[in-house]
Design a protein that fits this description.
By secondary structure, the protein is mostly beta strands. It has a single domain, classed as Porin. 7% of the residues lie in helices and 54% in strands. An 8-stranded antiparallel β-barrel has the order 1-2-3-4-5-6-7-8. It is elongated. The two termini are 31 Å apart.
Length: 206
């Protein structure tokens, strides 16, 4: 699969999710407890970038530049009292990651998962945590020590950060990201890769 065809497939999947944004949208709580209005978007698209460093466990000192395009659909509200007040989202994500340092040159893939947003009345800042799993492809070099053993690779993503609402339809995000790449033991050895780094982005709410 070429990268343009990959992006076209992901775009089609994201557009397929868009009608779900309007299901039950008319009267879903625009306030969670109290009377102060807050915004819990039905559907949003985020564009984020990260700079990731490989852990010391791998001898190749990986460095990756990452771009993520994510579609999120609201799935459930928690309107009780306390710091857990907020809403959940399910997401579909496409990633493209040029490898700036390491034996390989690129990684691209998809991921699906959940994100929880901690929201209080009147807040423009919304802390969040997220996690998901997926799959992807890398131009592997099995003959290089510490490189990935095959092209097909699984991924795990976890993130935590904060979103700042600029307007009803635009938010800025900043946080930290952990990414794990592995072929699930399909080759021996299986030199998995653990990456950590900052993440920033912009989100468009609908």
């Amino acid at each position: 699969m070429t990268f343009p065809r990959f992006l076209a497939s992901i775009s089609a999947a994201i557009l397929a999710l868009a009608p779900l944004a309007h299901a039950g949208n008319e009267a879903v709580s625009r306030h969670i407890g109290g009377s102060t209005e807050i915004i819990a978007p039905s559907f949003e698209i985020g564009v984020e970038g990260s700079y990731l460093l490989g852990s010391l466990a791998n001898p190749n000192s990986y460095e990756l530049g990452s771009v993520f395009i994510t579609a999120r659909v609201r799935w459930g509200l928690h309107d009780g009292p306390g710091w857990l007040r907020g809403y959940n989202q399910v997401y579909l994500l496409a990633m493209a990651e040029p490898i700036l340092r390491g034996p390989e040159n690129f990684y691209y893939g998809i991921s699906a998962g959940f994100r929880y947003n901690f929201m209080q009345p009147g807040w423009r800042l919304t802390p969040y945590v997220s996690g998901g799993v997926g799959l992807g492809w890398i131009d592997s070099h099995s003959d290089v020590f510490g490189a990935q053993g095959q092209d097909f690779t699984f991924n795990i993503l976890t993130a935590a950060g904060v979103s700042y609402r600029v307007s009803d339809h635009v938010s800025l995000t900043a946080g930290a990201l952990y990414q794990h790449l592995s072929n699930g033991g399909q080759t021996d050895p299986n030199p998995s890769l653990n990456l950590f780094g900052p993440q920033i982005g912009v989100t468009f709410n609908f």
